Amino acid sequence: MTWLTISLLWYFKLVVLGIVFLPITIAFFGDRLVDKGYAFSKVVGILLCSFTLFVLGVFKIAPFTVISAFTVFGGFAIINMIVAKKVIPKGTITARDVRIWFFIELLFLCSFLFWVVVRGQEPSIRGLEKYMDFGFINAILRSTYFPPKDIWLVGHFINYYYFGHLSAATLTLLFQVTSDISYNLILSTLFAMGITQTWSLVATLLTSMTGRVKAYFGGLLGAFLLNLGGNLHTIYLFTKGYGTDTPIPFWKIWSVFSPSTYWYPNATRFIPFTIHEFPSYSYVVADLHGHVFDIPFVLFTIACMLCILKTVPSKHTAAFEKEKKFLPMLWSFLSQHHIWSALLLGSMVGIHYMTNAFDGIVYGALGWCFYFSLQFLGNCAYNHGRCSLFPHL
Q1: Cα 338 from chain centroid (whole Å)
Q2: Residue 149 forms beta bridges with which residues?
Q3: Residues 6+ apart with CB under 8 A from 164
Q4: Measured between alpha carbons, how far is 393 from 387 in angstroms, rounded to an integer?
Q5: Where does the chain have alpha helices with state H?
Q6: Helices 3-20 and 95-120 sit at what angle, rounded to 10 degrees?
Q7: In sequence order, what are the residues at sequence separation of 6 or more whose Cβ sits closer than 8 angstroms to the Cβ of residue 329?
Q8: Cα–Cα distance between 370 and 75 in angstroms, integer?
Q9: Are the beta carbons of 188 and 115 closer than 8 angstroms?
C-alpha cells in the first residue's frame, strides 16, 4: 500500500473510534462546548481504552493482547450505545452540530495529512530520544502484563513514565499496524488532535464574547498559535548566530538575514538552566516522548475545567434532595461538594503523572488551585453550591 492509503486507513479508524465514544463525550460536555465535545471524543476513547488495559494488565486480570484490546473496545461500544439510547435526550444533536463536526473532521484530516507529509520528508526513527520511545512502545507490545520489561536492563521493569507509550501501543493493537508504521502516524495524530482540540476550546471561549463566525476564525488562529507558534528567538535569524548553550544578546550580533547561521534547537535552550520546548519544536523533532503524548491529555483537562466553570445547577440535583433514597442522596451530596469535579481532575492528574511526571506536578497544583477557588471564591456556576458534571444524567 502507498503512504496515502495507509494514512487514510489509519484516519478512518480514528473516525470510528471517535464516533463510538461520542455518546459518552456528549453526555459529559453537553452544550458547554461549541461542538458538544466532538473534538475530544477521540482522546476520550484513547484514554478509556488505554487506562482500562493498563489496569487489567497491572492486576494480572487480562493480558495486553489484540483480543483484550478489542474486548475492551467492544465493551465501551456497548456502554456508549446504552448512553446514546438512555441518557442523551432526543433532539440534543442539531443540524448545526453536524455541520460543526464535519468541519472539525475536515480540519483534523487536513492537519493529519499535513504532518504526515512533513514527517514523510525524514521518516526514520533514529536520533535524540526516538530509540527510547520506539523501544518503549515495542516493549509494551511484547508485554503480557505490566509493568513492561526494561529494554536495556535484563530482568528489570521499566522504571519510567510510560502511559503515553502505552496509549500508542493500544492504538497499534486496535488498528492492526506494525509499530514502525504507527510511530509516525501517531505523531501526526497528536498534531491533528492538538489542532482540533485547541479550536474547540478557543471557539467556545470566544462564542460568549463575539459572533460565531469570528469565534470560529479565532479558534483557527488559536489552534495555529498553540501548535505552530514559537517564541521571539527567531529574531536571531538576523544575527551572526551563537554557539549552543552560549546565548548572546541579539543586539550585540546584528547582521543581515542569515538562516544558515540559525540553529533552531537554540530556541528551546536560551533561558539559562532550563529546557523550554514548545509544541511545534516537539512535532518537528518527532520524539514520541511523554511531554508530546500529554498535549491532547492536557487540552482535555483544560476543557474539563472550562466545563466545570460553565456548569449550572442541575434540576436533577434539586429533585434528588427531596427524595430520601440512598443513591439520590449520595448523588446530591457528591454534586453539592464538588466531589465529582475533584475525582475527575484527580484522575487526570494521575494520567498526567503516568504520561509525563512533571505535568503531574504542574496540573496537580493547577487542579488544587482550581478546586479551592471553586470552594472559597465562588463562581456563577456554583451560586447554589452544587453542579451537575453530567448534564444529561
Answers
A1: 24
A2: 157
A3: 288, 289, 290, 292, 293, 294, 355, 356
A4: 12
A5: 3-20, 22-29, 41-58, 66-86, 95-120, 130-142, 163-174, 179-207, 212-228, 279-285, 290-309, 315-322, 326-336, 339-355, 357-372
A6: 150
A7: 320, 321, 323
A8: 33
A9: yes
Cβ(82)–Cβ(166) under 8 Å?
Answer: no
Where do the H-state alpha helices sit in 235-325? 279-285, 290-309, 315-322
Which amino acid, residue 300? F
Residue at 323: amino acid letter = E
Task: Give the separation between CA 292 and CA 285, rounded to whole angstroms.
Answer: 11
- Is residue 114 within 8 Å of 58, Cβ to Cβ? no
Sign of CA pseudo-dihedral 244, 248, 250, 252? negative
Nearest to 336 by CA among 360, 318, 322: 318
Q: What is the reported pTM?
A: 0.89
d(CA 35, CA 19): 13
Q: Would you write out the chain's pLDDT as a tens digit for each of its 393 residues?
A: 688 999 999 999 999 999 999 999 999 898 899 999 999 999 999 999 999 999 999 999 999 999 999 999 999 999 999 999 887 878 778 999 999 999 999 999 999 999 999 999 999 999 889 999 999 999 999 999 999 999 988 889 998 999 999 999 999 999 999 999 999 999 999 999 999 999 999 999 999 888 889 999 999 999 999 999 988 888 989 988 887 778 888 888 888 888 888 888 888 988 888 888 999 999 999 999 999 999 999 999 999 999 888 774 444 444 444 555 555 555 555 555 567 777 888 999 999 999 999 999 999 999 888 877 776 655 444 444 444 444 544
Provide the 3-class DSSP secondary structure of residue 57: helix
Other Cβ atoms within 10 Å of 92 Cβ, number: 16
| Closest residue by Cα to residue 109 from 18, 31, 175, 212 | 18
Closest CA to 93 of 31, 19, 168: 31
